[in-house]
Amino acid sequence: MMTYQDILANAQQLSTSEKARLLAEISASLQHELRTSAQPKRSLLGIWEGLDLSAEEIDATRDELWGNFPREDI
């Protein structure tokens, strides 16, 4: 089995056009692997599930965050 160092040493002996071709083939292969092995994206529809906020709690938090905006000392 070849090691990373062996492969790198062999790749450095290639001509510039062969290096470019090798890079293009590896890149295409890697893109394909990443697309096929990617985890399915989690839906954001249930992100707030189980969180029960009342209108009063939202208003209190909003007042806390924006209570002194804009500040007079600026």
Give me the Rg, rounded. Answer: 28 Å
The low-pLDDT segments are none
The biggest sheet, with number of strands, parallel, antiparallel or mixed sense and barrel status, is:
none
Query: In angstroms, what separates the terminal alpha carbons?
Result: 67 Å
Secondary-structure element pattern, one letter each: HHH
| DSSP E strands, number | 0
Give the helix level as a range of percent.
55-70%
What is the 3D shape? elongated
Proportion of residues in extended strands: under 5%
Query: Mean pLDDT, nearest integer?
Result: 88
Individual helix count: 3
Counting helices, strands and paired strands, the structural category is: mainly alpha
